[in-house]
Amino acid sequence: MADNSEEQFTPLNPTLLSADLARQYKAEMAEVLGPDLMAEVDWRHGDPNFEKINSDYYSIWNRQQGGHKKYSYFAVYDRLFSSFRHKRATMLELGVYKDASLKSWQEFLGEGSTVVGVDINPDCHKYDAAEAGRHVRIGNQFDSEFLASLGSEFGPFDIVLDDGSHKTDHQIASFNSLFARHVAPGGVYFIEDTNTSLWPRYRQGGKDIFDLIRALGLATHIFYADHYYSEYRREEHPKTFRTLAAAKLIEEVRIIDAGVAICKAGADHYPPLVDLR
Question: Is 68 designated active site?
Answer without folding.
Answer: no
